[in-house]
Specification:
- By secondary structure, the protein is an all-alpha fold.
- The chain contains nine helices and no strands.
- It is globular, with a radius of gyration of 17 Å.
Length: about 180
């Protein structure tokens, strides 16, 4: 790859690394595996940068690579992913936005309990529903971008998001 193409790749793709890590963390439920998945995704994106179609969505393209890489790794290992090492490590991996003052103990406990419930509810979703909901509601991708990333029709994506949200509604209604 020439220097101009490398600069274009770096300025275009690497800007989405944080979003990739967040999605990878939700898929793998492990910081170490998420880091490996993102690294492998970025290596593949770099390797196939010449096949990227200018004018199409870079986010959808790299999330497709992330999804396919995750599926490939999942099938290669031939077993279920291990559960998260612990909520504290997961929350540390996700990080908090800087705030002026630390939250009160009651607020911190409440926030931790809410995140715990959300994570548990997301884990109970079937993988396709979880991926669709995470890409839509957490990563903010459009239906079209999600359809490209999941390699399926927009109607199926909309259906999975709707059904996933319905399944989340019950356990998370009171919040």
């Amino acid at each position: 790859m020439d220097a101009a193409a490398r600069r274009a790749f770096e300025s275009t793709v690497l800007a989405h690394a944080d979003g990739l890590f967040g999605a990878a963390l939700r898929l793998t439920r492990s910081r170490a595996e998420a880091e490996d998945l993102v690294q492998e995704t970025l290596v593949r994106a770099y390797r196939f940068w010449a096949s990227f179609r200018p004018g199409s969505s870079v986010r959808a393209w790299i999330f497709t690579i992330l999804r396919n890489t995750f599926i490939t790794r999942y099938h290669r290992q031939g077993r279920e992913r291990a559960l998260a090492e612990g909520l504290e490590q997961e929350f540390a991996a996700v990080g908090e936005a800087p705030i002026a003052a630390p939250p009160s103990p009651e607020a911190a406990t409440s926030q931790l309990a809410l995140r715990e419930e959300i994570d548990a509810a997301l884990e109970r979703l079937p993988p396709d529903y979880r991926m669709a909901v995470v890409l839509a509601d957490i990563e903010g991708l459009s239906y079209k971008e999600i359809a490209e990333a999941m390699e399926g029709p927009i109607g199926t994506v909309m259906s999975r998001i709707h059904r996933g949200r319905l399944q989340l509604h019950g356990p998370l209604y009171r919040h």
